[in-house]
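Quick check before the chapter quiz. The format below is the same one you will see on the exam, so make sure you can read both the input and the output lines.
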Amino acid sequence: MIQTQDLQLLYNTMKDIETKGESTKVMADCLRFIENKIKESQQEPVAPPVPPMSEPEHVEAEVVE
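Here is the expected output.
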């Protein structure tokens, strides 16, 4: 999943690209799309951290002869 920071960086980069004519309309649509994705990513609940797994206990194996 793309993080909010990545989307904001992409948005800021695209915003600085100069466009002309039809490209300006396409870029505006792309920027609106990214804005919506940024808003969605900020509203997503953050999953709680997963606790680390405990080390398994070391058990000596019995040798059977």
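If your answer matched, good. The chain has two helices and no strands.
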